[in-house]
Amino acid sequence: MRIKWFMTAALALCAAVSGLAQDESAVRGTLDPDNNLVTDENGYRYQYVEGLKLELCAGGRYSGTVNLPRTLVVGGKELEVAGIAADAFRDNKDVTDVNYDRSEQYVGPSAFYRSGIHYYWDNRYGLPQYIYPSDDFSLFVLQDKVEEYERYEPRWMFFKHNYAPLTFKEDHMDEDSYQWGYSPWNAERMQGVLFEMPVEASVKKAMFRGYDAQEVVGLVMDCRFAAFHRFPPFSRWKWGETTQTMGATLEKQMETRYDRTLRRSRYIGNLREEDGRVGIFEFEPKDGQAMFVIAWVVGGKVKATYVQTTEIDPREGEYSVWNVDDDGEYGIPDLLCVAFDLHDNVILFFNHNAPESVNIYALRQQGDQLQRFGEDQWYRYVD
User: Model's pTM, two decimal places?
Assistant: First the structure.
């Protein structure tokens, strides 16, 4: 089940909220005691979240431009509207724009997915970045500069298909006393921007269950990027677990396609909601060149592939190639997150656990290809 950071507030606590000075023009809402949902005078619907705040949710009357209020008066009490819930406008083509306070109010994942709000795939929404936890999961380090005006914008951290909010704590990006490079056992001493996750310990435990901090690479993203994409649940292969091959039929198909002898194949990720799987095929070297292929498979058929070839240094053999699986010890990428755009093209975010080189990348489906994208922010240099 997807981990959410908010909790439904008890109806009985509503009367305990201190009243604030009210503006006569303030938007007012009516509580439905049967479902604990609030509907305002515009027909918008809200649900309670942690701290007796409200968030706009699915089920209201939404069309054209939706203007999200900062507060809502319910039962004579003025409550903060914290943001927009996940899936709030999903598949609603009548909504064409949303006005909200981007520095204070959040937008939940998939909130704008396949709505009438126009989306551009470019940097105006901010592409995701990678982030690393401290050993006790109390701090999360982003090794990239964050401008002052961007620090306090709401953002989400994803690990697999679970997500939670992050809040800015402090900036050590340019401090020489802190360590450059990735140090999984000393992340709080890494140069970077530090964030906290303001959720209960039980939520963190569920989010990272089965993983030590040094095994976790998270994905932090702008609320707007998260809002326009869908994040289905999936299971992933983790080092130390029993691997599953991609099957004889697919293996033969890939050998024929690339005219190479297959060395091994394995699943990396298996989606539970959709009929889709992610797998990797590693081939025997040919003509002094190593090659592996990451494949997106739907309904037992390969729909899109990413091909990585590397020249082998004849003096050192295959050990000169970082993306070759050295006897099973390396070469198996961790699938960090799976997303879909509004056209149902898949986006895959990986951490490649080979320590001697660049090992973080993302692939975006374009027709029958998985194309790598991203800038230097997605390179992790192991110190």
Answer: 0.85
